[in-house]
Amino acid sequence: MTSLRHVLATLGEPLVEVVVAPHGLGVPVSDVVILDPEDPLEASPGDLVLVIGARGRAAAPAIRAAGRGGAAAVAVKGATGADIAADAGVALLTVGAEARWEQVESLARGVVEAARAGGEAASGEVLGDLFALAQTIATLTGGLVSIEDTANRVLAYSRAGDEVDELRRLSILGREGPERYLAMLREWGVYQRLRAGEGIVRIDERPELGIRRRIAAGIHAGKQPLGTIWVQEGAQPLTERAETALLGASRALAPQLIRARTLPSPELRLREDLLASLLEGRLDAESVADDIGADPARPAQVLAFSLERSDNRQLRRAELVHLIAVHTAAYRRSALVSVIGGRVYALLPDLPEHSDAAVLALAREITGTARRHLDVPVRAALGGVVPRLSDAAASRGDADRVLAAMARGHWAADVASLADVRAEVLLSEVLAFLGGQPRIRDPRLVSLVAHDTEHGGILVPAVLAWLDAFGDVRAAARVLNIHPNTVRYRVRRAAEVSGVDFDDPAQRILTQLQLRL
Fold it and tell me: Do 244 and 330 meet the contact criterion of CB atoms below 8 Å apart?
């Protein structure tokens, strides 16, 4: 079930505006119903009621009936008093005079049905609906975004902002570009350039025509055009990275538009499930390579992203998936993104030689953008570069090991590779092995730990600090914030209790490892 807030975020201005919401925007919406005042005035809890046969004050009986039935909201055309809806205890929306009711119903029903069929899969995260991706592109470019198909029908758009020009306003209201504007764009050669191949097309501002500055990119499957992404500049200039983000978005959108054309909705997870299957060793690399157009014999690398604490973790992770998809597609056309076990993984196939610096910069850009625009901390781990696609699971394993080391506090930055934390990763794996093999532990150290636990727990920390300091008593004392003589006494006492000879290098190494357990 979705909420009124989510429905409004999808429709937004200029289609609908909120007049009053007595119970807030978090009320659940479970269905969209059309109500004609000549029909019985009935509504059910959770309904979004579209009153299509009455305007303004004439819709008052329908509004009151919706309130009595526990409806979530009522949408009407024409100005009407907020007091009627407030008294009825139901949210009131006004629909733009130029908007078509079938358009409003289609969009709203799409949101409700998507929520009804939703739920997070165990593996393979769908990139999400086009409206969410449009909003991500808007965030990255700093502009107002709309996504159109090849017939110039508006498929999705970002939330309304300031300085919406006439072309955008009429396109959203009419669900397709107005013909007089389309004719001008054709005359200027814009569509010819968009359909010729991938790349950024720039459209200068034309104040006399009601057109602000724009950039656009075609969405293609090979040579076949699938649609267009438009980014209108608002009150503020577009970001410096707007064109790169738009290029990445055009590539990330292509598989989604292809699937929307040719596959039923249960198949929308196909590419993401392919990646999850590859990384979990359930699918051969050739099958994945054929689907995404990658060379299975070329090097590949996996990046893993971990979303830290967040108030709305599921929503934030969906936004993070969009963000990663846009950035990685801009870097490698055949990049794949998926969610497995709460982590987001990006596969970069067909890597060129000496790609380390570029991939590191890509990971840093993604974590930085997530921190700035999503306001959530994200850690990124770089798996090792593997010689062929079939070894991608090994690269994923490296990335997981790095994230685990970062979570234990062994790396302060947001991005790390295996080379950065190799010692910590290998040590943790040695300790994990030692922890699972009681027969290779020294029973003298088991006795030392048991004794120390019963007598204040002061000997083991002193021995570990002394060993970590290579026998430097003063350095160990500074770490423990005690007197050096106290360290000497505790180490000597530990030797007496355990019978371990700390002058023997082999026993020192064994002690250091086992006490770390």
Answer: yes
Residue 305 has pLDDT above 90, yes or no: yes
The average pLDDT across 335-347 equals 88
Q: Do 380 and 406 touch, CB atoms closer than 8 A? A: no
pLDDT above 70 as % of the chain? 88
pLDDT tens for each residue of 6-29: 787 667 656 787 888 888 778 899
For residue 407, give every residue at least 6 positions away whose Cβ sits within 8 Å of its Cβ, in sequence order, or none.
306, 379
For 450, how many CA atoms within 13 A lie in the half-sphere containing its CB?
A: 7
CA distances 240 to 7, 117, 206, 236, 293, Å, are: 32, 38, 22, 12, 30
Q: Where on the phi/psi map is residue 300: left (φ > 0), alpha (ψ -120 to 50), or beta? A: beta
Q: How far is CA 300 from the centre of its chain?
A: 22
Residue 14 confidence (pLDDT):
62
Which residues touch 280 (CB under 8 Å, ≥6 apart)? 123, 340, 393
**Angstrom distance (rounded) from CA 147 to CA 150:** 10
- Structure-token pair, residue 72: 């979530």
Residue 268 pLDDT class (50, 70, 90 cuts): very low
Q: In what order do the strands lie in the sheet with 47-55?
A: 16-20, 91-95, 73-77, 47-55, 31-35
The torsion defined by the Cα of 392, 396, 399 and 405, in degrees rounded to 10, comes to -140
Residue 164 has pLDDT above 70, yes or no: yes
The token pair at 57 is 């004050």
Separation CA 301–CA 275 (nearest Å)? 12
Provide the token pair at 307.
């979303």
pLDDT by residue (tens digit) across 389-399? 999 999 999 99
Which contacts of 147-150 are long-range, i.e. CB under 8 A and separated by 24 or more positions? Answer: 147/227, 147/228, 147/229, 147/230, 147/253, 148/176, 148/177, 148/227, 148/228, 148/229, 148/230, 149/226, 149/227, 149/257, 150/195, 150/225, 150/226, 150/227, 150/228
**How far out from the chain centre does Cα 219 lie?**
21
Q: Please give the mean pLDDT across all residues of the chain.
A: 82
Tokens of 164: 């919406």
pTM of the model: 0.54
Task: Pick the closest to residue 77 from 36, 35, 16, 29 (CA basis).
Answer: 16
Contacts of 380 (CB under 8 A, 6+ apart): 303, 304, 305, 306, 363, 364, 366, 367, 414, 415, 416
User: What's the pLDDT score for residue 259?
Assistant: 59
Reference 318, options 120, 27, 160; nearest CA is 120
Beta bridge partners of 345: 304, 338
Q: Any residues with CB less than 8 A from the CB of 425 and at least 6 apart, and which?
A: 401, 402, 404, 405, 418
- Please determine, for residue 302, whether its predicted confidence score (pLDDT) is greater than 80: yes
